[in-house]
Specification:
There is one protein chain. This protein is 31% helix and 20% strand. By secondary structure, it is an alpha/beta fold. It folds into 3 domains: 10-160, 5'-nuclease (Rossmann fold), CATH 3.40.50.1010; 171-244, no CATH class; 271-468, Rossmann fold. Strands 3-4-2-1-5-6 form a 6-stranded mixed beta sheet. The protein has a 6-stranded mixed beta sheet with strand order 7-10-11-12-9-8, with no helix packed on it. Strands 15-14-16-17-13-18 form a 6-stranded parallel beta sheet, sandwiched between helices. It is elongated, with a radius of gyration of 26 Å. This is ATPase. It comes from Methylophaga frappieri (strain ATCC BAA-2434 / DSM 25690 / JAM7). In the N-terminal section; belongs to the PINc/VapC protein family. Belongs to the PhoH family. GO terms for molecular function: ATP binding.
Length: 469
């Protein structure tokens, strides 16, 4: 890789997929300059048509570029670089770099095996030409395409992934929603008070460990004598109010006939059944009970408690294998093949002694309360008093997640389910997934809760396969 004398002076060459992934990438390189090859503009032009999220991002990029070019006086101003301003009304930091366009033909110094007529190779040729022309600048190619970054590195071009949408450096740092109290926790407290209110037990604790807690975080002590399972209600400096949680592992507290089989499932049901929590995220491997627990809580609160008017379930339609093509029918009928998890869990929840006729009648009743909706028609909608379940949320980008969550009106609860180790969307990873994004950003809010389910409860066969395959 070519070493540059001044590492602080950088010029970032952007690949098309970076702008397709994040239209605001133009303004996220702070004081550094950005270079757009002409082939990138051509690829953006090809991708502008359609109703997909990528097409909308391309059109937004085009609007940003058009606004920037309006401020350029003439061709000389374009050649000298267009100043990059911040976006008014946004939280983006003020960009102080300049935007350069390719305005002339550049030498195609590529191996014969890499013809320049391919878009990726044309971008590589531009990067090499910039390296040769600007020897005092560190030219860096930014792309979401791993193969392009590999080819760039082989050719001696510094190549990086687009990191600005990265929530965490490592997914192991992701907030888990529950923590174990260390031995001697109660003895190390500066103050401890307790009281009863509406049949619930509260404690106010004060100590250094409290500073690391978040609202609605679940805490537990594994000690047999002083075992405790509680939820953090409020945190102020080094003091916190905690409440003992309901034990849903006993049959008398069953939710739609379902009881928790482990500690994390008990935590999840407490978050799902809490009317003061508007947003819940559940992470876990396949078979940990995410969908079953959520549906049981949704049916109980919708049909029995009348807290919500209906249940809405949706998910992103990303196939695992080959796409099966056109699906006939209405919106709900088109979404039904994607909702196998819903149907499987309804069979578990639909327990009746009325034989086949009674089971079918109960199933029809449940499906009348549960609506299946497509993500494609969510823009502009507002859901009032709905229990919304977003399944396979790990396949959503942070912007798609924001679009969905902002649809919530008064009285609506949103639950996001997913497994960040099973991402099928291109250019998304464990650290850039929209599910990771919301878990990290909602952990400070007093009306949200999160829990990571650890133990699979599907079957001994599924547990063995998850651990050994």
């Amino acid at each position: 890789m070519i070493k540059r004398p001044d590492a602080s002076k950088r010029l970032f060459v952007l690949d098309t997929n970076v702008l397709m992934h994040d239209p605001t990438a133009l303004f996220r390189f702070d004081e550094h300059d950005i270079f757009l090859p002409m082939v990138v503009l051509e690829e953006l032009d090809k991708g502008k048509k359609g109703l997909s999220e990528v097409s909308r991002n391309v059109r937004q990029v085009s609007r940003f570029l058009d606004d920037l070019l309006l401020k350029a006086i003439d061709t000389d101003a374009i050649n000298s670089g267009i100043p990059l301003p911040g976006i008014s009304g946004s939280e983006l930091p003020e960009a102080t770099g300049r935007l350069f366009f390719q305005t002339r033909q550049m030498a195609q110094d590529l191996p014969k095996e890499l013809p320049g007529h391919q878009a990726d190779n044309a971008i590589l040729a531009v990067a090499i030409s910039l390296q040769q022309a600007q020897t005092d600048t560190n030219v860096i190619l930014v792309s979401k395409d791993i193969n392009l970054r590999i080819k760039a590195t082989v050719l001696g071009i510094c190549a990086e992934d687009y990191y600005n949408d990265k929530v965490l450096d490592d997914v192991d740092l992701l907030y888990r929603g529950a923590s174990e109290l260390l031995a001697g926790f109660w003895e190390d407290l500066n103050r401890l008070e307790s009281w009863m209110q509406d049949g619930r037990t509260f404690y106010q604790v004060q100590g250094e460990v409290v500073k690391d807690w978040y609202p609605n975080q679940l805490i537990y002590s594994p000690e047999t004598e002083n075992a405790i399972e509680a939820v953090v209600r409020t945190v102020t400096n080094d003091a916190a109010d905690i409440e003992l949680i309901q034990d849903y592992r006993h049959d008398k507290h069953a939710v739609w006939g379902i009881t928790a089989r482990n500690r994390e499932q008990n935590f999840a049901l407490n978050l799902l059944m809490d009317p003061d929590i508007d947003f819940v995220s559940l992470l876990g491997q396949a078979g940990t009970g995410k969908t079953l627990l959520t549906l049981a809580a949704a049916l109980t609160q919708t049909i029995e408690h009348k807290r919500y008017n209906e249940i809405i379930m949706t998910r992103v339609t990303v196939p695992v294998g080959e796409d099966i093509g056109f699906l006939p029918g209405t919106e709900e009928e088109k979404m039904t093949p994607w909702m196998g998890a819903l149907m499987d869990n309804l069979e578990v929840l639909n327990k009746t002694d009325g034989g086949d006729w009674g089971r079918q009648a109960t199933n029809d009743l449940l499906q009348r309360w549960i609506k299946i909706r497509s993500l494609n028609f969510m823009r502009g909608r507002t859901f009032l008093k709905r229990f919304i379940i977003i399944d396979e949320a790990q396949n959503l980008t942070s912007k798609q997640m924001k679009t969905l969550i902002t649809r919530a009106g008064p009285g609506t609860k949103i639950v996001c389910l997913g497994n960040v180790s099973q991402i099928d969307t291109p250019y998304l990873s464990e650290t850039t997934s929209g599910l990771t994004y919301v878990v990290d950003h909602f952990k400070y809010w007093q009306h949200s809760g999160h829990i990571t389910l650890l133990r699979g409860e599907r079957s001994r066969l599924a547990d063995f396969a998850s651990e050994n395959l």
